Automatic annotation (TrEMBL):
Enzyme class: oxidoreductase
MF terms (GO), sorted A to Z: glyoxylate reductase (NADH) activity; NAD binding
PROSITE patterns recorded: D_2_HYDROXYACID_DH_3
Pfam families in the cross-refs: 2-Hacid_dh (PF00389), 2-Hacid_dh_C (PF02826)
Protein species of origin: Nitrospina gracilis (strain 3/211)
Name of protein: Glyoxylate reductase
Gene (UniProt): gyaR
The organism's taxonomic lineage, starting at the top: Bacteria, Pseudomonadati, Nitrospinota/Tectimicrobiota group, Nitrospinota, Nitrospinia
Length: 324
């Protein structure tokens, strides 16, 4: 009998084809998330599950997985999965590191440039027929080149963002739990500083930490108030790393110049007042959304599924799986 693999939401056709050659695939192509009861049912009947970061794979779902060997998340973040419970139940958990950081760094830069130079309102202005000719004060923004970039969480994505700053002659500050090896700091021309210093000195603050108990709401009103009034805050990490209500208030008052968020505290819900602001960009969680990257991610997910079904350790277990 073929092993059963559930794919909880829209997935790559080529990756699905690979799965179907070896497995019986139960595919939810409705575009809507599966309700919890259905996730439990799928866990009970599956050998592996391919999940979205919006699927809450908690102890209840994992507890139903009698023969479940693997939960393979289609993304780098895995805060939607109760990893401790999965380990207890001897269910592997994998994510997709090493393949999406450049694409997500590109999006982070698109947001930095887009918010600092008012690209979206300027485009709207032209489309609406307001443009009557070059004007000295039309859509004045702030420079990005030569400024100070503060990277909070200098992992795969944070480092890819920092590396791009070299081409913009920026000074780079970073903070995280552990200092990078000296050779990496030198290559990025980045200085390790405490969070407070980073917030006070940066013109662009960009968040790249995973959502954990330690990082939940690490940026609140108090931290935003430390930033320069001309600074921008970029979040392509997870919504709950930040207090979005405090951000909306700060943007209304002009505490900082603007913000760009790819992720939201109560995703997909937006925080009240967000859409009325002009100094914010709010794309719908598209950090890794390039054709090529989503394909590579999907194929890495399938590699992990095949590893687990072959009785091997899946190749990209989530960080910390072995206690590191
Ligand atoms: N917007 C999007 O579409 C995407 C968002 N993400 C999010 O970005 C996050 C980061 O991704 P990667 O760079 O691949 O992860 P990573 O694991 O390579 O890097 C995370 C960094 O955060 C640091 N960190 C962890 N806890 C910390 C703490 N308490 N204080 C300070 N620093 C801390 C770590 O030292 C590490 O350097 C993911 O966990 C995910 O939530 C990832 C991919 C795409
Ligand atoms: O948010 C996306 C991810 O890959 O994590």
């Amino acid at each position: 009998m073929k092993p059963v693999v559930t794919v909880t939401n829209i997935f790559s056709e080529t990756a699905l084809e690979r799965l179907r050659q070896r497995c019986h695939v139960v595919y939810n192509d409705s575009g809507a998330s599966l309700p919890v009861a259905e996730l439990k049912q799928r866990a009970a009947e599956s050998d592996a599950m391919v999940t979205y970061l919006s699927d809450r794979i908690d102890s209840e779902v994992l507890g139903a997985g009698n023969k479940l060997k693997l939960v393979a998340n289609y993304g780098a973040g895995f805060n939607n999965i109760d990893v401790a419970r999965a380990r207890q139940n001897q269910i592997w958990v994998t994510n997709t590191p090493g393949v999406l950081h450049e694409t997500t760094a590109d999006l982070t830069w698109a947001l930095m440039l887009g918010i600092a130079r008012a690209i979206v309102p300027a485009d709207r202005y032209t489309r609406e027929g307001h443009f009557t000719g070059w004007q000295a004060k039309l859509f004045l923004g702030h420079d990005v080149y030569g400024k100070t970039l503060g990277v909070i969480g200098c992992g795969e994505i944070g480092r890819a963002v920092a590396r791009r700053a070299l081409g913009f002659d920026m000074k780079v500050l970073y903070c995280q739990r552990n200092r990078l090896p000296e050779e990496q700091e030198q290559r990025l021309n980045a200085a390790f500083v405490p969070l407070e210093q980073l917030l006070r000195e940066s013109d662009f603050v960009t968040l790249h930490v995973p959502l954990t108990e330690e990082t939940r709401y690490m940026i609140r009103a108090e931290q935003i108030a430390m930033m320069k009034p001309t600074a921008y805050l970029i979040n392509t990490a997870r919504g709950k790393v930040m207090d979005d209500r405090a951000l909306v208030e700060a943007l209304k008052k002009g505490t900082i110049a603007g913000a760009a968020l790819d992720v939201f505290e109560n995703e997909p819900e937006l925080t009240e007042g967000m859409t009325e602001l002009n100094n914010i960009l709010i794309p719908p969680h598209i950090g890794s959304a390039s054709h090529a990257t989503r394909e590579v991610m999907a194929n890495l997910v399938v590699d992990n599924v095949f590893d687990a079904l072959d009785g091997a350790t899946p190749r990209t277990l989530v960080p910390g799986w072995n206690g590191g």
